[in-house]
Each structure stands twice: as structure tokens, then as C-alpha cells.
Amino acid sequence: MSWREGLLRRERNGVVYFTAESFERTGLVAHAFTSKLGGVSEGECESLNFGFSRKDEPERVLENYRRMAEVLGVSLDSYVSTLQVHEDRVWAPEGADRGMGVLDRENMEKADALITDLSGLTLVKHTADCVPVLLLDPAAKAVSAIHAGWRGTAKRIAQRAVEAMARRYGSKPENILAAIGPSIGPCCFEVDEPVYGAMAKAGLLSAALVRDKKNGHYDMDLWRANARALMDGGLLAEHITIAGLCTRCRGELFFSHRRDRGKTGSLAAMIALKGET
Ligand SMILES: [Zn+2]
């Protein structure tokens, strides 16, 4: 397997974020894996927090979204975000769903993966150690944003999104580009039996298992597990980019649920198809 490694570090108006070169080269999308730098939140959410359910003031979170919209060149009402429930549902929002989860936080869908072929929608997924995955099919002009914790990874949520793009937009998996963003790395993801069992049941153990510590604990690699699931879905290894950035290790850049013991903010993975010009 020979996927690409590393994202590009970008900074604009003080906002630090990361992009995939393979996505940038298409010129078709605005996208970002955010860092925690460049926002207005304070305390444990300092400073670029995108989670309204965190210990933060809604006005500050909204200002962070506003800043990111400026960076991406999208409008504030283009965001669509859903409740993340560690399931494998893939949902395709319509134009009328603009604003869900950001401007309108009352009636949110439950879905861990979003897909669209519409420009004017900015898909948002939140993480703070869980794995964010972005997909872009430059041929069918369709995108996806995915939240994959260990449960979602074991449910092959990224592969389910690929299948949904094929069904709905006629995407050919061999055309789809993928970026696996900053998240807890194999260096820091020590787990016990339930995770081991879930990966084994999913057929992802050989990709995920780094080390059996012989005491009922295991080091797991969710990056490789998600890459494996994407390849099982038909993606080419050379179309997959793995950030290789561990949120727990890189405290100067990222929020981390494990490191900060839950007292932390939310990172975001965002992607929007640019409109016809
Ligand atoms: Zn680490």
C-alpha cells in the first residue's frame, strides 16, 4: 500500500489549517482540516472551537465559523453540520438544509457522513481525536465529509460514503480522492478488548493493529484502518492522503479529547464544491 503522507499547512488571517495537495490541484473545492489556532474562543476551547456543545459561548463559536467562511471563500449560511452518533448513516443534504447545525441548531439530522454534488453547501464534521475523512470525486463533482471514531471506523463509514456517492452521483471509486485528517495516531491510541473485537469483526484488524501488548491492551492505527476501508471500497492507494498528524501529540496545534480529558474544543473538517464560474 502506498498512500501519500502529509497535508499542506496554510495560514490566512491568523487562522491555521491544513489542506490536501491532491484536492487543491483540482481547483474544484474549498476545504480545510482546522487547527485550534486563529479563533476567538477562550478557556479550554482556546481558540478555534467549532463545537456548540463545548464549554464555549455560542457567539464565539459562530465568530469562528465566520472567520473560517472568509478563509474558505464560502458564505456563513452555507454550512451544514449534523449530529454525530457513531453510526454508519450517510446523508445528502439539500439546498434547503443550508445552515443546519450552525445557524439553525434546533432540528439537526443524525448522520456521521455527509455527501453532496451541490455547490453552495459547506459540509462540516467535528472531531477531537476521532478521524475526519474528506472525499472528492473530481469527475462526478461530488464530495463527502466523514466522522470516523473507532466505532465508525469499524462500521466502515468511509466505505459507506464511497458507496453512497457511487449510487447517487455515479461516482467511480477509482476517481475518488481521499484525505484522512489530523486525529489520534497509532502513537497514542491504546485500546482494550471492545475495540479489538470490533476491528476484528469488521475485517480491519490486520490494518489497524500495531501492537498487542499482551495485557489486554492494544495499540491501534485508525488511519490505516480507514485507508483500508476506502481501498476495499475501490479507492486507489495513491489517491489517499494520510495527514500523519496526531492530535494528542501535537498539543500546540490541535484539540484532543484524550489529552485534555474531555475539557477541550472541537476541530472541524470542511469541504465545499466551488460554484460554476
Ligand atoms: Zn500521538
TrEMBL record:
The record's keywords, sorted A to Z, are: Hydrolase, Metal-binding, Transferase, Zinc
Top-level taxon of origin: Bacteria
Q: Which GO terms describe its molecular function?
A: copper ion binding; hydrolase activity; S-methyl-5-thioadenosine phosphorylase activity
Q: Pfam families this protein is in?
A: Cu-oxidase_4 (PF02578)
In this entry, which stretches build a coiled coil?
Answer: none
Enzymatic reactions: inosine + phosphate = alpha-D-ribose 1-phosphate + hypoxanthine; adenosine + H2O + H(+) = inosine + NH4(+); S-methyl-5'-thioadenosine + phosphate = 5-(methylsulfanyl)-alpha-D-ribose 1-phosphate + adenine; adenosine + phosphate = alpha-D-ribose 1-phosphate + adenine
Q: Does the keyword Metal-binding apply?
A: yes
Keyword Metal-binding appears in the UniProt entry:
yes
Q: Which NCBIfam families match?
A: peptidoglycan editing factor PgeF (TIGR00726)
Reported function: Purine nucleoside enzyme that catalyzes the phosphorolysis of adenosine and inosine nucleosides, yielding D-ribose 1-phosphate and the respective free bases, adenine and hypoxanthine. Also catalyzes the phosphorolysis of S-methyl-5'-thioadenosine into adenine and S-methyl-5-thio-alpha-D-ribose 1-phosphate. Also has adenosine deaminase activity.
- State the family it belongs to: Belongs to the purine nucleoside phosphorylase YfiH/LACC1 family.
Q: What is this protein called?
A: Purine nucleoside phosphorylase
